[in-house]
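Hi X.,

You mentioned you wanted examples for the new student's onboarding notes, showing what a folding record looks like when two proteins sit in one file. Here is a clean example. The first protein comes first, with its sequence line followed by its structure tokens.
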Amino acid sequence: MIDDTFIDQMGAHALIPYLFSDDQEADLVQTVVDALLPILDDLGPTAPGNAYLAHPGWINVLNSAGAAYLALSAGKL
């Protein structure tokens, strides 16, 4: 998602209404991006998957992605 949308450069709010419906959705996704970017900076784009999973910041990615998933998927089934 980061590579395809340039969300790391523009921010999630720039993608309202193209990808996100409102500020709340953009904020949820921006939190995930903000947790992920330091890990990408530390490891680079070619690190093996297990390096990302072992990174101490990965728990922040999991927590923020889980919260975003629950909020974005609520009532949309």
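Then the second protein repeats the pattern, sequence line and then tokens:
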Amino acid sequence: MITAPNSGQNATNFVLKLWQQHQGAIGRALLANEADPAARQDLKQDIFLALHQAADRLKAAEMPRAYLFRIVHNVTVDHIARAQRHKWQPLDDELQQQMLDDCPSELLGEQQQSQQLMRAVRQLSAANRQVILLAMEDLDAPEIADILQISHGAVRVRLNRAKTELMELMQNGR
């Protein structure tokens, strides 16, 4: 006897599809926030678990993509807070280079630019880093505002500050 899938299965399938559609963006957010590959993998699992736990709410959300990025944001913020409490040391440049070598970029110039950008993004304040990462994933101001639970005006201000700070960091080659 064949039975119709229950709503839990439908919600899980919905989460899996969202995960597949946005795994590149999630991976880039993880790369920008965590240099250690093992910790990044743990963070990825934490995010997937949080998405699975919120599957029904995610499926019912008016803007599921924004809701997904809110979960990614919240789990990442919690991870960063835990890391700061434990005072983990950042990776040295050689380990960061090794991590960035896994980028899909095939051209050396692009790879160097990606490395410089990731170093610069990591130097941004947490608030500016989150806004710029979401903007880099083509989320618009209302979606970013919903994810971070701030006003549209605050998003625009943070984006302007983040862009200015990022340009200065990139020009200084830091």
